[in-house]
Amino acid sequence: MAQRGPAAPRRSAGLVSDRWRPPSKAPRSKATASRPGSSRRGPTASSPPPDAHGVAARRVALEALLRIDQEGGYANLVLPGVLARSGLDERDRAFVTELVYGTTRMQRACDWLVDRFVMRDLDAPTRAILRLGAYQLVFLETPPHAAVSATVGVAPPRTRGLVNAVLRRVSEAARVWPDEATRLSYPDWILERLTQDLGAERAVAALEAMDERAASVERDDGYHQDPASQWVAAEVCAEPGERVLDLCAGPGGKATLMAGSGALVVATDSRPVRSGLVAENVRRLGLDNVAVLTADGARSPFAPASFDRVLVDAPCSGLGSLRRRADARWRIEPTDVDDLTGLQRSLLHEAATLVRPGGTLVYSVCTFTDAETVGIDEWLSATHPEFEAVMPPGEPWQPHGRGALLLPQPADSVSGATDGMFLLRLVRAASTR
Ligand SMILES: C[S@@+](CC[C@H](N)C(=O)[O-])C[C@H]1O[C@@H](n2cnc3c(N)ncnc32)[C@H](O)[C@@H]1O
Fold first, then answer.
1. Contact status, residue 132 vs residue 99, Cβ threshold 8 Å
2. Which terminus of the chain, N or C, has fewer Cβ atoms within 10 Å?
């Protein structure tokens, strides 16, 4: 079977710059990738000089990439500050966002593309510049003369020759990937774990989907939230007048959506900064039926059986939302999964006591490891037999244990990609045993 080429961002989502367009065609296959002598020519000695806008945008992108890579900054926190100081217009900011998120996601693939032509150790800025150039050439399909000249323009004089020579070779060379994890640009363990838990076909499709840019989806009230998260909140089925607890609520996306039902929503989070975000969102949306509290969900301050419905949208490895968190794939460790399952059990154990007889408990995570999905389900059914599973939602969700899995790849040709999720809905027996 021919190995497909790297997934390139497909949707424009309002991110189009005058000076940049998202690629219009599907990713190239290995067999059709550009080769020396093909119609895609590299820059020549007579390449036009780089345009000032292009260089300025790439310089801002480089600053963000270095802060993410060298200082351990989170992409979603670093980028807004760098953009705010940049003086760039809206279109160039969108271009920089694409460059930073895309280069960060495709870092491993870009390193492989570059390292074939580099014979010495690279310092951090040169490595980042070459990644940036390779991302444009291969994943954005920026015309080589523009990508190379504008990227060389951000390099200091001492490395310009090297950057120019390497990027020209990258633009001309065939792309034959050494393995799937490099092509998809993930650490080996993520590909291996998802292949084991989902099967190779579903795992590769999920990982490809998460190499793409996530479109921003706005709710009717103006809050931006992925459809998958909205569906989870809807599955809690909050009713007017009910008491609903969102045990892990920060930043408040699901709590504020559930509040639309007319239920009284109590939103807790153990981290003050996260409960602060919930409070801010509640205020901004003008909701008067959400109470916000900082509290450890594993040792909650509430009396047993005080809620009609409890949502445990638990902290997890986040492997289902990697397209939104560009740098997360390089941060998560395999051992994190085991640590998180301990916390997930503690939260569910506490949540189970807080649901009134006949009430509903919903568990959700934005990941797909067996340990955090069916593993938790098995533990829950053994530890809390007083809870019975309710029929899981149908398409695009897929049955998974007693719950349902939503994979990030589009379910069919008309659906869009979403975050990946697992959802388990249970009802507590009316008479407590
Ligand atoms: C997946 S996020 C929740 C997202 C949120 N429900 C939403 O839709 O906006 C998980 C949250 O759990 C919180 N958390 C982690 N440990 C916790 C604990 N022991 N008790 C309560 N919340 C916790 C994290 O701070 C994080 O905000």
1. yes
2. N
Ligand 1 mean position to 297 CA, how many Å? 9
Backbone phi, psi, residue 363, to 5° = -115, 130
Single pTM value for the model: 0.88
How many angstroms separate the alpha carbon of residue 313 from the centre of ligand 1? 7
Task: Note if 237 is an active site residue.
Answer: no
Find the helix packing angle between 52-71 and 124-134, rounded to 10°. Answer: 120
Return all residues near 96 (Cβ < 8 A) that are at least 6 apart. 57, 60, 61, 64, 79, 82, 83, 86, 88
> Atom 25 (ligand 1): residue with closest C-alpha?
271
Q: What domains can be seen in the chain, in order of their start residue?
A: 30-182 (1.10.940.10), 227-428 (3.40.50.150)
**Partners of 291 in the beta sheet?**
266
Nearest-10 Cα torsion for 298, 299, 304, 310: -40
pLDDT 10s digits, 107-132? 999 999 999 999 999 999 999 999 99
DSSP track, 361-408: EEEEES---TTTTHHHHHHHHHH-TTEEE-----TTSEEETTEEEE-S
Ligand 1 pocket, CB under 6 A: 229, 247-254, 269-271, 274, 296-298, 313, 315
Return the structure tokens found at 5: 């080429």
